[in-house]
């Protein structure tokens, strides 16, 4: 940057020396030449500055998206984003039971003996599989198969993890939990055509040879049906995979489903607690929730603790909409007149 400034002011200095020498003889000509030289100097400076900025920006982009090809590739299953089908803690062994206030949605999730419940971190693998399903749907081919093959490197890359022995073993443990977690639910199952006892995955396998390292993942009929329904898959922010807190992952998925591209959505704190499936006491959960809201660190949405009619709520606001209102407050006020 110092060199760029030196070059810029050097050219200006040369110009002014020439300007003093020719000042009395050709004023109009000099004026034109002066403007041209200054414009050229500024353009040269901006061009080189832009190159430097582009390099820095590209470096940041490469670092931030090191393991993601395209944000549009990340998909979640919308109907499953607001109910407790996976644990927000990594080592839960107790069942999760949930029923919606109107009784239309019932969920019971149980781990097999000797296993932990599938967690929200394990769900990352399902999101990668649904990306593949979305690609097949977009290509207008046949119905996506239940078995999806993903190279190990590609899977770890999408999950923003390095390709190593430990990471491969972690993937295998996640797949085991997704297969060993037993599901009973009314979701996509009002007539109970899927009997109790199914899981997220029917089976999985890993193949490693000299030139092949890949996972073969077979979704259960229930999960495959839900993922292939029209409009079932929802884009998720690629930064989601960087969220380390299980509670924050749940909060993001809740906001993404219910707020979406709207301005905001309010949830009772008690509703958030029940939908999270947390096995912590409500008082402790509420403490954790307040900290998450205070930190306000989920992609795409603001969180705010509010009170209405003597009850406590979490307000999820769309960051983009909020910023647009800040930039164009007058336009927003005009719009409000017609609502």
Structural features:
Arc Repressor Mutant, subunit A; 3-stranded antiparallel sheet; 18% strand; 339 residues; alpha+beta
Question: Would you kindly provide a written description of the structure presented here, covering whatever features stand out?
Answer:
- By secondary structure, this protein is an alpha+beta fold.
- The chain folds into 3 domains: about 1-65; about 70-240, Arc Repressor Mutant, subunit A, CATH 1.10.10; about 245-339, Arc Repressor Mutant, subunit A (Orthogonal Bundle), CATH 1.10.10.
- Helices cover about 45% and strands about 20% of the residues.
- The protein has 11 helices and 11 strands.
- It has helices spanning about 1-20, 25-65, 125-140, 150-160, 165-180, 220-230, 245-260, 270-275, 280-295, 320-325, 330-335, and strands spanning about 75, 95-100, 105-110, 145-150, 180-185, 200-210, 215-220, 235, 265-270, 300-310, 310-320.
- Strands 2-3-5 form a 3-stranded antiparallel beta sheet. Strands 4-7-6 form a 3-stranded antiparallel beta sheet. A 3-stranded antiparallel beta sheet has the order 9-11-10.
- A hairpin with a 4-residue loop joins β6 and β7 (about 215-220).
- α1 packs antiparallel against α2 (about 25-65).
- The protein is globular, with a radius of gyration of 28 Å.
- The two termini are about 50 Å apart.
How far is the N terminus from the C terminus? 51 Å
Number of helices: 11
Q: Give me the secondary-structure category.
A: alpha+beta
Tally of structural domains: 3
Report the strand count: 11
Q: At the third CATH level, what is the topology name of the largest domain?
A: Arc Repressor Mutant, subunit A
- In the CATH hierarchy, what is the class of the largest domain? Mainly Alpha
């Amino acid at each position: 940057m110092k060199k760029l400034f030196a070059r810029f002011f050097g050219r200006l200095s040369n110009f002014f020396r020439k300007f003093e020498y020719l000042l009395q003889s050709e004023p109009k000509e000099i004026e034109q030449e002066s403007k041209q030289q200054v414009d050229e100097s500024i353009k040269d400076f901006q061009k080189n500055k832009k190159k430097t900025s582009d390099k820095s920006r590209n470096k940041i982009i490469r670092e931030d998206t090191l393991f993601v090809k395209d944000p549009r590739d990340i998909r979640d299953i919308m109907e499953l984003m607001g109910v407790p089908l996976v644990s927000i803690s990594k080592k839960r062994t107790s069942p999760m039971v949930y029923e919606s206030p109107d009784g239309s949605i019932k969920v019971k999730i149980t781990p097999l003996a000797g296993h932990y419940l599938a967690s929200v971190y394990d769900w990352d693998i399902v999101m990668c599989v649904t990306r593949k399903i979305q690609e097949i749907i977009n290509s207008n081919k046949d119905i996506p198969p239940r078995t999806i093959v993903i190279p190990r490197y590609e899977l770890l890359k999408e999950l923003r993890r390095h390709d190593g022995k430990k990471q491969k073993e972690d993937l295998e443990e996640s797949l085991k939990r997704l297969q060993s977690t037993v599901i009973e639910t009314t979701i996509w199952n009002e007539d109970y055509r899927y009997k109790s006892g199914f899981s997220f995955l029917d089976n999985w396998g890993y193949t490693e040879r000299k030139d092949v390292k890949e996972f073969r993942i077979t979704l259960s009929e229930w999960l495959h049906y839900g993922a292939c329904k029209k409009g079932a898959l929802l884009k998720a922010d690629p930064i989601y995979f960087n969220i380390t807190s299980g509670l924050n992952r749940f909060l993001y998925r809740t906001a993404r489903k219910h707020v979406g591209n709207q301005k905001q959505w309010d949830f009772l704190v008690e509703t958030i607690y029940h939908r999270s499936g947390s096995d912590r006491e409500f008082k402790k959960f509420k403490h954790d929730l307040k900290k998450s809201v205070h930190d306000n660190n989920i992609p795409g949405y603001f969180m705010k603790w509010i009170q209405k009619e003597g009850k406590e709520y979490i307000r999820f606001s769309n960051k983009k909409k909020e910023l647009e209102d800040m930039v164009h407050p007058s336009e927003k006020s005009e719009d409000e007149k017609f609502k």
